Amino acid sequence: MARIFAYIAHKNGMADDSAVELLAAAKKVDAAASPTAIVTGLGANLDAVCSTLRASYGEVWKVASEALAYPNAELIRKALVKIVPAGSIMLIAHEHFGIDLAPGLSIKLNAAFVSDVLAIDGIEGSNLKVVRQEFGGQVSAHVRCDISSGAVITVRPGAFKPTEGVALGGTVVDKSSEVSALTAGRRYLQTVVAEAGDVDITKHNVLVSIGRGIQEKDNVSIAQDLADALGAAVSCSRPVVDAKWLEKSRQVGSSGKTVKPKVYLACGISGAFQHLAGIKGNPFIIAINKNPKAPIFQAADVGIVDDILEFLPEFTNKVREMHSVSAK
Amino acid sequence: MEILVCARRVPDTSENEIALNSDGNDIERDELVYSINEPDNYAVEEALQIVARVGGNVTVATVGAEDDEEILRREMAMGANHGVLITDDAFAGSDARGIATILKAFVQKGSYDLILTGVQAEDGGAQVGGMLAALLDYPFASLVNSIEVVDGEKLKISREIEGGNKEISGIDLPCVLSIQTGINEPRYVGMKGIRQVASIPIPTYGATELALGASTVGAAAAKVTRVDYFVPALGKSAEMLEGTREENIEKLLELVAAKGGLK
Known about the structure:
Chain A has about 325 residues and is of the alpha/beta class. Helices cover about 30% and strands about 30% of the residues of chain A.
Protein backbone atom coordinates (compact mmCIF):
# COMPACT_ATOMS: atom_id res chain seq x y z
CA MET A 1 0.00 0.00 0.00
CA ALA A 2 1.25 3.44 -0.96
CA ARG A 3 2.24 5.75 1.82
CA ILE A 4 -0.26 8.58 2.42
CA PHE A 5 0.74 12.17 3.18
CA ALA A 6 -1.35 15.23 4.00
CA TYR A 7 0.02 18.71 3.37
CA ILE A 8 -1.21 20.91 6.23
CA ALA A 9 -1.86 24.60 5.65
CA HIS A 10 -1.57 26.82 8.71
CA LYS A 11 -1.74 30.42 9.85
CA ASN A 12 -0.62 32.18 13.03
CA GLY A 13 0.46 28.91 14.62
CA MET A 14 -2.90 27.21 14.01
CA ALA A 15 -3.42 24.28 11.65
CA ASP A 16 -6.14 24.84 9.06
CA ASP A 17 -9.51 23.08 9.64
CA SER A 18 -8.64 20.90 6.67
CA ALA A 19 -5.98 19.08 8.76
CA VAL A 20 -8.57 16.78 10.33
CA GLU A 21 -10.57 16.54 7.10
CA LEU A 22 -7.51 15.32 5.19
CA LEU A 23 -7.01 12.71 7.91
CA ALA A 24 -10.60 11.55 7.41
CA ALA A 25 -10.03 11.45 3.64
CA ALA A 26 -6.86 9.36 4.12
CA LYS A 27 -8.89 6.83 6.11
CA LYS A 28 -11.28 6.55 3.15
CA VAL A 29 -8.35 5.70 0.89
CA ASP A 30 -7.23 3.00 3.30
CA ALA A 31 -8.88 2.49 6.68
CA ALA A 32 -5.67 0.96 8.02
CA ALA A 33 -3.46 3.81 6.85
CA SER A 34 -1.36 5.84 9.23
CA PRO A 35 -0.99 9.04 7.23
CA THR A 36 1.89 11.43 7.72
CA ALA A 37 1.33 15.18 8.03
CA ILE A 38 3.79 17.53 6.31
CA VAL A 39 4.09 21.08 7.59
CA THR A 40 6.35 23.76 6.14
CA GLY A 41 7.20 27.14 7.59
CA LEU A 42 9.47 28.73 10.12
CA GLY A 43 9.94 29.38 13.81
CA ALA A 44 7.62 29.10 16.79
CA ASN A 45 4.43 29.07 14.69
CA LEU A 46 5.64 26.04 12.77
CA ASP A 47 6.57 24.24 15.99
CA ALA A 48 3.16 25.01 17.49
CA VAL A 49 1.37 23.53 14.47
CA CYS A 50 3.54 20.40 14.48
CA SER A 51 2.90 19.94 18.17
CA THR A 52 -0.91 20.24 17.73
CA LEU A 53 -0.91 17.77 14.83
CA ARG A 54 0.76 15.11 16.99
CA ALA A 55 -2.66 14.55 18.54
CA SER A 56 -4.18 13.36 15.26
CA TYR A 57 -1.30 12.20 13.05
CA GLY A 58 1.06 9.38 13.99
CA GLU A 59 3.95 11.15 12.29
CA VAL A 60 4.49 14.81 11.50
CA TRP A 61 7.20 15.93 9.08
CA LYS A 62 8.44 19.39 9.89
CA VAL A 63 10.18 21.38 7.18
CA ALA A 64 11.64 24.62 8.51
CA SER A 65 13.24 27.06 6.10
CA GLU A 66 13.69 30.81 5.78
CA ALA A 67 12.44 30.46 2.19
CA LEU A 68 9.21 28.78 3.35
CA ALA A 69 8.24 31.42 5.93
CA TYR A 70 5.45 32.51 3.57
CA PRO A 71 3.63 29.67 1.76
CA ASN A 72 4.88 30.05 -1.81
CA ALA A 73 3.52 27.10 -3.81
CA GLU A 74 6.51 26.85 -6.14
CA LEU A 75 9.02 26.68 -3.25
CA ILE A 76 6.88 24.23 -1.30
CA ARG A 77 6.52 22.06 -4.39
CA LYS A 78 10.29 21.91 -4.74
CA ALA A 79 10.65 21.02 -1.06
CA LEU A 80 8.00 18.27 -1.28
CA VAL A 81 9.60 16.74 -4.37
CA LYS A 82 12.82 16.34 -2.35
CA ILE A 83 11.22 14.55 0.59
CA VAL A 84 8.10 12.66 -0.59
CA PRO A 85 8.92 9.10 -1.74
CA ALA A 86 7.89 8.02 -5.24
CA GLY A 87 4.51 6.33 -5.42
CA SER A 88 3.01 8.17 -2.46
CA ILE A 89 -0.52 9.51 -2.22
CA MET A 90 -0.52 13.21 -1.36
CA LEU A 91 -3.68 14.87 0.00
CA ILE A 92 -4.08 18.65 -0.15
CA ALA A 93 -7.06 20.91 0.63
CA HIS A 94 -8.73 22.30 -2.51
CA GLU A 95 -8.54 26.00 -1.64
CA HIS A 96 -6.47 28.84 -3.09
CA PHE A 97 -3.16 27.41 -1.93
CA GLY A 98 -3.91 23.83 -2.99
CA ILE A 99 -5.01 25.06 -6.42
CA ASP A 100 -1.63 26.75 -6.72
CA LEU A 101 0.42 23.78 -5.52
CA ALA A 102 -1.21 20.52 -6.54
CA PRO A 103 -1.24 20.43 -10.38
CA GLY A 104 2.48 21.18 -10.72
CA LEU A 105 3.33 18.87 -7.82
CA SER A 106 1.63 15.96 -9.60
CA ILE A 107 3.79 16.59 -12.68
CA LYS A 108 7.01 16.76 -10.68
CA LEU A 109 6.15 13.62 -8.67
CA ASN A 110 5.07 11.91 -11.91
CA ALA A 111 1.84 11.07 -10.09
CA ALA A 112 -1.79 11.04 -11.19
CA PHE A 113 -3.82 14.12 -10.27
CA VAL A 114 -7.46 14.41 -9.29
CA SER A 115 -8.76 17.73 -8.08
CA ASP A 116 -11.64 18.82 -5.86
CA VAL A 117 -12.64 15.36 -4.65
CA LEU A 118 -15.87 15.06 -2.61
CA ALA A 119 -15.82 11.39 -1.71
CA ILE A 120 -13.36 8.51 -1.82
CA ASP A 121 -14.65 4.97 -2.39
CA GLY A 122 -11.41 3.12 -1.66
CA ILE A 123 -8.95 1.22 -3.81
CA GLU A 124 -9.65 -1.47 -6.39
CA GLY A 125 -6.54 -3.05 -7.89
CA SER A 126 -4.24 -0.18 -8.86
CA ASN A 127 -7.12 2.30 -9.02
CA LEU A 128 -8.41 4.74 -6.45
CA LYS A 129 -12.13 5.41 -6.86
CA VAL A 130 -13.29 8.95 -6.15
CA VAL A 131 -16.26 11.25 -6.71
CA ARG A 132 -16.11 14.74 -8.23
CA GLN A 133 -18.71 17.28 -9.24
CA GLU A 134 -18.99 18.95 -12.62
CA PHE A 135 -21.06 21.73 -14.17
CA GLY A 136 -21.38 23.76 -11.01
CA GLY A 137 -22.52 20.76 -8.98
CA GLN A 138 -25.43 19.87 -11.28
CA VAL A 139 -23.99 16.39 -11.83
CA SER A 140 -21.41 14.21 -10.10
CA ALA A 141 -18.93 11.81 -11.66
CA HIS A 142 -17.27 8.59 -10.54
CA VAL A 143 -13.60 8.91 -11.42
CA ARG A 144 -10.96 6.18 -11.54
CA CYS A 145 -7.39 7.16 -10.83
CA ASP A 146 -4.43 4.88 -11.50
CA ILE A 147 -2.24 5.27 -8.41
CA SER A 148 0.50 2.82 -9.43
CA SER A 149 2.97 5.72 -9.64
CA GLY A 150 1.33 7.69 -6.83
CA ALA A 151 -1.32 10.40 -6.80
CA VAL A 152 -1.94 13.98 -5.79
CA ILE A 153 -5.53 14.50 -4.65
CA THR A 154 -7.08 17.83 -3.70
CA VAL A 155 -9.98 17.46 -1.30
CA ARG A 156 -12.97 19.79 -1.15
CA PRO A 157 -13.10 21.66 2.16
CA GLY A 158 -16.00 20.46 4.31
CA ALA A 159 -16.61 17.29 2.28
CA PHE A 160 -14.96 14.90 4.75
CA LYS A 161 -16.28 14.91 8.31
CA PRO A 162 -13.50 14.59 10.85
CA THR A 163 -13.61 11.27 12.69
CA GLU A 164 -13.38 11.17 16.46
CA GLY A 165 -9.66 10.83 16.91
CA VAL A 166 -7.73 9.05 19.58
CA ALA A 167 -4.85 11.10 20.93
CA LEU A 168 -2.00 9.48 19.05
CA GLY A 169 0.95 11.26 20.59
CA GLY A 170 2.70 11.12 17.23
CA THR A 171 6.32 11.94 16.62
CA VAL A 172 7.70 15.02 14.88
CA VAL A 173 10.42 14.26 12.35
CA ASP A 174 12.58 17.22 11.28
CA LYS A 175 13.12 17.04 7.52
CA SER A 176 14.55 20.54 7.18
CA SER A 177 18.07 19.43 6.33
CA GLU A 178 16.81 17.55 3.26
CA VAL A 179 15.46 20.78 1.81
CA SER A 180 17.95 23.44 0.84
CA ALA A 181 18.68 26.10 -1.75
CA LEU A 182 15.10 26.74 -2.82
CA THR A 183 14.48 29.42 -5.44
CA ALA A 184 11.33 30.41 -7.31
CA GLY A 185 10.25 32.54 -10.25
CA ARG A 186 7.48 34.00 -8.12
CA ARG A 187 8.08 36.19 -5.05
CA TYR A 188 5.50 37.13 -2.43
CA LEU A 189 5.30 40.88 -1.88
CA GLN A 190 2.30 41.62 0.36
CA THR A 191 -1.30 40.84 1.24
CA VAL A 192 -3.91 43.49 0.61
CA VAL A 193 -6.87 43.14 2.96
CA ALA A 194 -10.36 43.47 1.44
CA GLU A 195 -11.95 46.90 1.72
CA ALA A 196 -14.97 47.32 3.95
CA GLY A 197 -18.09 48.14 1.97
CA ASP A 198 -20.97 50.57 2.48
CA VAL A 199 -23.11 47.80 4.00
CA ASP A 200 -21.76 45.16 6.38
CA ILE A 201 -23.59 41.99 5.31
CA THR A 202 -22.05 40.04 8.20
CA LYS A 203 -24.13 42.06 10.69
CA HIS A 204 -27.60 41.34 9.24
CA ASN A 205 -30.13 38.77 10.44
CA VAL A 206 -31.84 38.59 7.08
CA LEU A 207 -30.08 38.59 3.72
CA VAL A 208 -31.71 38.85 0.32
CA SER A 209 -28.94 37.31 -1.73
CA ILE A 210 -28.89 37.47 -5.51
CA GLY A 211 -27.07 35.48 -8.16
CA ARG A 212 -26.77 35.34 -11.91
CA GLY A 213 -30.56 35.03 -12.13
CA ILE A 214 -30.90 38.77 -11.48
CA GLN A 215 -29.70 39.09 -15.10
CA GLU A 216 -28.78 42.77 -15.21
CA LYS A 217 -27.68 45.65 -13.06
CA ASP A 218 -31.00 47.50 -13.28
CA ASN A 219 -32.73 44.50 -11.68
CA VAL A 220 -30.68 44.76 -8.48
CA SER A 221 -33.26 47.30 -7.28
CA ILE A 222 -35.85 44.50 -7.24
CA ALA A 223 -33.83 42.77 -4.53
CA GLN A 224 -33.12 46.05 -2.74
CA ASP A 225 -36.86 46.80 -2.60
CA LEU A 226 -37.51 43.45 -0.92
CA ALA A 227 -34.58 43.94 1.45
CA ASP A 228 -35.93 47.40 2.41
CA ALA A 229 -39.38 45.95 3.07
CA LEU A 230 -37.91 43.16 5.20
CA GLY A 231 -35.36 45.37 6.97
CA ALA A 232 -32.68 43.19 5.39
CA ALA A 233 -29.51 43.74 3.37
CA VAL A 234 -28.72 42.64 -0.18
CA SER A 235 -25.84 40.23 -0.62
CA CYS A 236 -24.82 38.23 -3.66
CA SER A 237 -22.87 35.38 -5.24
CA ARG A 238 -19.74 35.71 -7.35
CA PRO A 239 -21.20 36.31 -10.85
CA VAL A 240 -22.94 39.48 -9.60
CA VAL A 241 -19.59 40.91 -8.45
CA ASP A 242 -17.81 39.75 -11.61
CA ALA A 243 -20.38 41.66 -13.65
CA LYS A 244 -19.80 44.75 -11.40
CA TRP A 245 -23.48 44.92 -10.41
CA LEU A 246 -22.55 44.98 -6.71
CA GLU A 247 -19.40 45.68 -4.72
CA LYS A 248 -17.09 42.83 -3.70
CA SER A 249 -17.99 43.55 -0.05
CA ARG A 250 -21.50 42.16 -0.77
CA GLN A 251 -20.21 38.75 -1.92
CA VAL A 252 -20.93 35.70 0.23
CA GLY A 253 -18.53 32.80 -0.23
CA SER A 254 -15.04 31.44 0.27
CA SER A 255 -13.55 34.33 -1.68
CA GLY A 256 -16.00 36.81 -0.15
CA LYS A 257 -17.61 37.27 3.25
CA THR A 258 -18.70 34.63 5.74
CA VAL A 259 -22.21 35.47 6.98
CA LYS A 260 -24.34 34.13 9.83
CA PRO A 261 -27.89 35.40 9.28
CA LYS A 262 -31.08 33.85 10.67
CA VAL A 263 -32.78 33.84 7.28
CA TYR A 264 -31.04 33.61 3.93
CA LEU A 265 -33.05 34.14 0.74
CA ALA A 266 -31.03 32.75 -2.15
CA CYS A 267 -32.56 34.35 -5.24
CA GLY A 268 -31.37 33.12 -8.64
CA ILE A 269 -28.29 31.58 -7.03
CA SER A 270 -27.21 28.19 -8.37
CA GLY A 271 -25.49 27.16 -5.13
CA ALA A 272 -21.85 26.47 -6.01
CA PHE A 273 -19.93 25.10 -3.02
CA GLN A 274 -17.71 28.18 -2.89
CA HIS A 275 -20.84 30.23 -2.27
CA LEU A 276 -22.33 27.85 0.32
CA ALA A 277 -18.98 27.84 2.16
CA GLY A 278 -19.68 31.45 3.13
CA ILE A 279 -23.02 30.69 4.84
CA LYS A 280 -22.49 29.67 8.47
CA GLY A 281 -24.57 29.35 11.62
CA ASN A 282 -27.21 27.10 10.02
CA PRO A 283 -29.65 29.81 8.88
CA PHE A 284 -33.09 29.08 7.44
CA ILE A 285 -32.33 29.03 3.71
CA ILE A 286 -35.03 29.83 1.17
CA ALA A 287 -34.08 29.19 -2.45
CA ILE A 288 -35.89 30.67 -5.41
CA ASN A 289 -34.54 29.57 -8.79
CA LYS A 290 -36.11 28.82 -12.14
CA ASN A 291 -33.82 25.81 -12.68
CA PRO A 292 -35.31 22.92 -10.67
CA LYS A 293 -31.94 21.14 -10.86
CA ALA A 294 -29.99 24.00 -9.25
CA PRO A 295 -27.78 22.57 -6.47
CA ILE A 296 -29.04 25.31 -4.11
CA PHE A 297 -32.19 23.21 -3.59
CA GLN A 298 -30.05 20.57 -1.89
CA ALA A 299 -28.76 23.07 0.64
CA ALA A 300 -32.00 25.01 1.21
CA ASP A 301 -34.77 24.40 3.76
CA VAL A 302 -37.50 25.64 1.44
CA GLY A 303 -37.43 25.86 -2.32
CA ILE A 304 -39.55 27.55 -4.95
CA VAL A 305 -39.09 27.04 -8.68
CA ASP A 306 -39.91 30.43 -10.15
CA ASP A 307 -38.44 33.40 -11.99
CA ILE A 308 -37.12 35.81 -9.35
CA LEU A 309 -37.72 38.80 -11.62
CA GLU A 310 -41.46 38.11 -11.35
CA PHE A 311 -41.57 36.50 -7.92
CA LEU A 312 -39.61 39.07 -5.91
CA PRO A 313 -41.70 42.17 -6.80
CA GLU A 314 -44.91 40.33 -5.88
CA PHE A 315 -43.35 39.11 -2.65
CA THR A 316 -42.22 42.68 -1.85
CA ASN A 317 -45.75 43.96 -2.38
CA LYS A 318 -47.13 41.35 0.02
CA VAL A 319 -44.57 42.28 2.68
CA ARG A 320 -45.46 45.97 2.29
CA GLU A 321 -49.20 45.20 2.46
CA MET A 322 -48.65 43.28 5.64
CA HIS A 323 -46.75 46.17 7.20
CA SER A 324 -49.46 48.63 6.25
CA VAL A 325 -52.15 46.33 7.74
CA SER A 326 -50.24 45.92 10.99
CA ALA A 327 -49.64 49.71 11.14
CA LYS A 328 -53.39 50.44 11.11
CA MET B 1 4.44 40.77 -25.57
CA GLU B 2 3.43 37.49 -27.22
CA ILE B 3 0.51 36.03 -25.28
CA LEU B 4 -1.08 32.61 -25.68
CA VAL B 5 -4.50 31.99 -24.18
CA CYS B 6 -5.61 28.38 -23.81
CA ALA B 7 -9.40 28.26 -24.03
CA ARG B 8 -12.17 25.69 -24.18
CA ARG B 9 -15.69 25.39 -25.48
CA VAL B 10 -18.01 23.97 -22.81
CA PRO B 11 -21.73 23.54 -22.15
CA ASP B 12 -22.89 26.84 -20.68
CA THR B 13 -24.31 26.07 -17.23
CA SER B 14 -26.06 29.42 -17.04
CA GLU B 15 -28.05 28.51 -20.16
CA ASN B 16 -28.61 24.78 -19.59
CA GLU B 17 -30.08 22.33 -17.17
CA ILE B 18 -27.49 19.56 -17.19
CA ALA B 19 -29.08 16.10 -17.24
CA LEU B 20 -27.76 12.56 -17.65
CA ASN B 21 -28.21 10.63 -20.88
CA SER B 22 -30.16 7.36 -20.82
CA ASP B 23 -27.00 5.25 -20.38
CA GLY B 24 -25.70 7.43 -17.55
CA ASN B 25 -22.22 7.47 -19.09
CA ASP B 26 -22.40 11.08 -20.22
CA ILE B 27 -24.53 14.16 -19.89
CA GLU B 28 -27.30 14.68 -22.44
CA ARG B 29 -25.50 16.77 -25.05
CA ASP B 30 -28.25 17.16 -27.67
CA GLU B 31 -29.54 20.72 -27.73
CA LEU B 32 -27.01 21.95 -25.18
CA VAL B 33 -25.93 25.55 -25.58
CA TYR B 34 -22.14 25.68 -25.79
CA SER B 35 -20.01 28.73 -25.30
CA ILE B 36 -16.47 29.67 -24.38
CA ASN B 37 -15.63 28.64 -20.82
CA GLU B 38 -16.36 31.84 -18.90
CA PRO B 39 -12.99 32.33 -17.13
CA ASP B 40 -11.23 31.73 -20.49
CA ASN B 41 -13.12 34.69 -21.93
CA TYR B 42 -11.81 36.89 -19.11
CA ALA B 43 -8.30 35.56 -19.90
CA VAL B 44 -8.62 36.63 -23.54
CA GLU B 45 -9.88 40.07 -22.52
CA GLU B 46 -6.96 40.44 -20.13
CA ALA B 47 -4.50 39.45 -22.87
CA LEU B 48 -6.04 42.03 -25.22
CA GLN B 49 -5.77 44.75 -22.57
CA ILE B 50 -2.11 43.90 -21.88
CA VAL B 51 -1.28 44.01 -25.59
CA ALA B 52 -3.12 47.33 -25.91
CA ARG B 53 -0.80 48.75 -23.22
CA VAL B 54 2.57 47.24 -24.15
CA GLY B 55 2.13 45.93 -27.71
CA GLY B 56 2.32 42.39 -29.00
CA ASN B 57 -0.02 39.66 -30.19
CA VAL B 58 -2.69 37.44 -28.72
CA THR B 59 -3.09 33.84 -29.90
CA VAL B 60 -6.02 31.76 -28.69
CA ALA B 61 -5.60 27.98 -28.88
CA THR B 62 -7.96 25.17 -28.02
CA VAL B 63 -7.53 21.42 -27.87
CA GLY B 64 -10.73 20.00 -29.30
CA ALA B 65 -12.67 19.19 -32.43
CA GLU B 66 -13.98 21.04 -35.48
CA ASP B 67 -17.01 22.43 -33.60
CA ASP B 68 -14.68 24.22 -31.22
CA GLU B 69 -13.60 26.58 -34.00
CA GLU B 70 -16.60 28.74 -33.11
CA ILE B 71 -15.04 29.93 -29.86
CA LEU B 72 -11.77 30.72 -31.65
CA ARG B 73 -13.67 32.93 -34.09
CA ARG B 74 -15.55 34.54 -31.23
CA GLU B 75 -12.31 35.43 -29.49
CA MET B 76 -10.79 36.63 -32.77
CA ALA B 77 -13.81 38.90 -33.16
CA MET B 78 -12.94 40.27 -29.71
CA GLY B 79 -9.52 41.16 -31.08
CA ALA B 80 -7.27 38.11 -30.76
CA ASN B 81 -4.76 38.09 -33.63
CA HIS B 82 -4.69 34.34 -34.18
CA GLY B 83 -6.80 31.28 -33.46
CA VAL B 84 -5.34 27.78 -33.47
CA LEU B 85 -7.22 24.48 -33.36
CA ILE B 86 -5.24 21.61 -31.87
CA THR B 87 -7.06 18.49 -32.91
CA ASP B 88 -6.40 14.83 -33.56
CA ASP B 89 -8.30 11.57 -33.01
CA ALA B 90 -5.25 10.45 -31.05
CA PHE B 91 -5.98 13.15 -28.45
CA ALA B 92 -9.42 11.73 -27.55
CA GLY B 93 -9.70 10.51 -23.98
CA SER B 94 -6.73 12.54 -22.73
CA ASP B 95 -6.78 13.38 -19.05
CA ALA B 96 -5.70 16.80 -17.76
CA ARG B 97 -2.06 15.76 -17.90
CA GLY B 98 -2.55 14.66 -21.51
CA ILE B 99 -4.07 18.04 -22.42
CA ALA B 100 -1.21 19.83 -20.66
CA THR B 101 1.27 17.64 -22.59
CA ILE B 102 -0.41 18.57 -25.89
CA LEU B 103 -0.32 22.26 -24.99
CA LYS B 104 3.33 22.04 -23.97
CA ALA B 105 4.21 20.64 -27.39
CA PHE B 106 2.27 23.47 -29.02
CA VAL B 107 3.90 26.16 -26.82
CA GLN B 108 7.33 24.86 -27.81
CA LYS B 109 6.46 25.36 -31.51
CA GLY B 110 6.22 29.09 -30.88
CA SER B 111 7.65 31.74 -28.62
CA TYR B 112 5.35 33.12 -25.93
CA ASP B 113 6.15 35.46 -23.07
CA LEU B 114 2.94 34.83 -21.21
CA ILE B 115 0.45 31.97 -21.21
CA LEU B 116 -3.03 32.46 -19.74
CA THR B 117 -5.79 29.97 -18.98
CA GLY B 118 -9.12 30.38 -17.27
CA VAL B 119 -9.05 29.39 -13.61
CA GLN B 120 -11.12 26.30 -14.28
CA ALA B 121 -13.47 24.71 -16.77
CA GLU B 122 -17.14 23.89 -16.13
CA ASP B 123 -16.30 20.20 -16.30
CA GLY B 124 -12.75 20.52 -15.01
CA GLY B 125 -11.02 21.29 -11.78
CA ALA B 126 -8.31 23.94 -12.15
CA GLN B 127 -5.73 21.45 -13.40
CA VAL B 128 -4.24 22.15 -16.81
CA GLY B 129 -2.60 25.56 -16.23
CA GLY B 130 -0.51 24.44 -13.26
CA MET B 131 0.42 21.19 -15.01
CA LEU B 132 1.45 23.02 -18.18
CA ALA B 133 3.64 25.40 -16.16
CA ALA B 134 5.38 22.50 -14.41
CA LEU B 135 5.94 20.67 -17.70
CA LEU B 136 7.53 23.82 -19.16
CA ASP B 137 9.35 24.67 -15.90
CA TYR B 138 7.71 28.12 -15.97
CA PRO B 139 6.51 29.90 -12.81
CA PHE B 140 2.75 29.64 -12.21
CA ALA B 141 0.06 31.49 -10.32
CA SER B 142 -3.60 30.57 -10.01
CA LEU B 143 -6.70 32.69 -9.31
CA VAL B 144 -5.05 35.79 -10.74
CA ASN B 145 -7.22 38.91 -10.50
CA SER B 146 -4.85 41.62 -11.68
CA ILE B 147 -1.77 41.83 -13.91
CA GLU B 148 0.63 44.73 -14.22
CA VAL B 149 3.56 44.56 -16.63
CA VAL B 150 6.61 45.80 -14.71
CA ASP B 151 9.11 45.40 -17.55
CA GLY B 152 9.85 42.92 -20.32
CA GLU B 153 10.93 40.29 -17.81
CA LYS B 154 8.52 40.61 -14.89
CA LEU B 155 4.89 41.04 -13.94
CA LYS B 156 3.29 42.19 -10.72
CA ILE B 157 0.21 40.09 -10.12
CA SER B 158 -2.53 39.73 -7.56
CA ARG B 159 -4.20 36.45 -6.56
CA GLU B 160 -7.61 36.08 -4.97
CA ILE B 161 -7.20 34.44 -1.57
CA GLU B 162 -9.65 33.89 1.30
CA GLY B 163 -12.12 36.52 2.45
CA GLY B 164 -11.68 38.70 -0.64
CA ASN B 165 -8.08 39.49 0.32
CA LYS B 166 -5.42 39.81 -2.36
CA GLU B 167 -1.96 38.27 -2.39
CA ILE B 168 0.48 40.39 -4.39
CA SER B 169 3.54 38.79 -5.99
CA GLY B 170 6.21 39.46 -8.54
CA ILE B 171 6.60 36.76 -11.20
CA ASP B 172 9.21 36.21 -13.90
CA LEU B 173 8.39 35.81 -17.59
CA PRO B 174 7.72 33.54 -19.28
CA CYS B 175 5.05 32.25 -16.91
CA VAL B 176 1.60 30.65 -16.84
CA LEU B 177 -1.27 32.39 -15.05
CA SER B 178 -4.78 31.07 -14.44
CA ILE B 179 -7.26 33.92 -14.60
CA GLN B 180 -10.15 34.39 -12.18
CA THR B 181 -13.49 35.77 -13.36
CA GLY B 182 -14.11 39.43 -12.58
CA ILE B 183 -10.53 40.53 -13.41
CA ASN B 184 -11.94 42.79 -16.14
CA GLU B 185 -15.12 43.41 -18.12
CA PRO B 186 -14.92 41.31 -21.29
CA ARG B 187 -15.98 43.30 -24.34
CA TYR B 188 -19.16 42.50 -26.17
CA VAL B 189 -18.98 40.54 -29.40
CA GLY B 190 -21.76 40.98 -31.94
CA MET B 191 -22.70 38.83 -34.89
CA LYS B 192 -21.18 41.44 -37.17
CA GLY B 193 -17.79 41.04 -35.53
CA ILE B 194 -17.93 37.29 -35.89
CA ARG B 195 -18.88 37.58 -39.58
CA GLN B 196 -15.84 39.76 -40.17
CA VAL B 197 -13.48 36.99 -39.05
CA ALA B 198 -15.52 34.13 -40.57
CA SER B 199 -13.23 33.62 -43.56
CA ILE B 200 -9.87 33.88 -41.80
CA PRO B 201 -8.23 30.45 -42.02
CA ILE B 202 -7.62 28.75 -38.68
CA PRO B 203 -4.49 26.60 -38.67
CA THR B 204 -4.73 23.15 -37.11
CA TYR B 205 -2.09 21.14 -35.35
CA GLY B 206 -2.28 17.38 -34.87
CA ALA B 207 -0.23 14.63 -33.24
CA THR B 208 2.19 14.51 -36.20
CA GLU B 209 2.92 18.26 -36.23
CA LEU B 210 3.41 18.18 -32.46
CA ALA B 211 5.37 14.90 -32.48
CA LEU B 212 3.14 13.35 -29.82
CA GLY B 213 2.70 9.61 -29.40
CA ALA B 214 0.08 7.45 -27.69
CA SER B 215 2.37 6.90 -24.72
CA THR B 216 1.89 10.50 -23.57
CA VAL B 217 -1.56 11.60 -24.77
CA GLY B 218 -4.98 10.12 -25.46
CA ALA B 219 -6.96 7.48 -23.61
CA ALA B 220 -4.08 4.97 -23.36
CA ALA B 221 -1.87 7.42 -21.47
CA ALA B 222 -4.62 8.71 -19.18
CA LYS B 223 -4.20 7.86 -15.51
CA VAL B 224 -7.46 9.53 -14.62
CA THR B 225 -10.69 8.34 -16.24
CA ARG B 226 -14.29 9.35 -15.69
CA VAL B 227 -16.30 6.15 -15.27
CA ASP B 228 -19.78 7.65 -15.36
CA TYR B 229 -21.93 10.58 -14.34
CA PHE B 230 -24.65 10.40 -11.72
CA VAL B 231 -27.05 12.69 -9.95
CA PRO B 232 -26.07 12.77 -6.29
CA ALA B 233 -28.53 11.44 -3.75
CA LEU B 234 -30.07 14.41 -2.05
CA GLY B 235 -28.82 15.06 1.44
CA LYS B 236 -30.79 17.68 3.28
CA SER B 237 -32.99 18.71 0.40
CA ALA B 238 -35.47 21.56 0.40
CA GLU B 239 -39.17 21.27 1.06
CA MET B 240 -40.47 22.45 -2.31
CA LEU B 241 -43.43 24.81 -2.34
CA GLU B 242 -45.48 23.74 -5.31
CA GLY B 243 -48.55 25.95 -5.11
CA THR B 244 -49.44 28.90 -7.29
CA ARG B 245 -47.15 31.90 -7.02
CA GLU B 246 -49.67 33.61 -4.75
CA GLU B 247 -49.90 30.57 -2.46
CA ASN B 248 -46.12 30.25 -2.36
CA ILE B 249 -45.77 33.90 -1.38
CA GLU B 250 -48.31 33.48 1.45
CA LYS B 251 -46.49 30.42 2.74
CA LEU B 252 -43.11 32.12 2.46
CA LEU B 253 -44.37 35.12 4.43
CA GLU B 254 -45.45 32.81 7.25
CA LEU B 255 -42.10 31.03 7.23
CA VAL B 256 -40.04 34.22 7.17
CA ALA B 257 -42.11 35.65 10.03
CA ALA B 258 -41.75 32.42 12.04
CA LYS B 259 -37.97 32.50 11.62
CA GLY B 260 -37.76 36.09 12.85
CA GLY B 261 -37.17 37.54 9.41
CA LEU B 262 -39.83 40.28 9.45
CA LYS B 263 -38.94 43.59 11.03
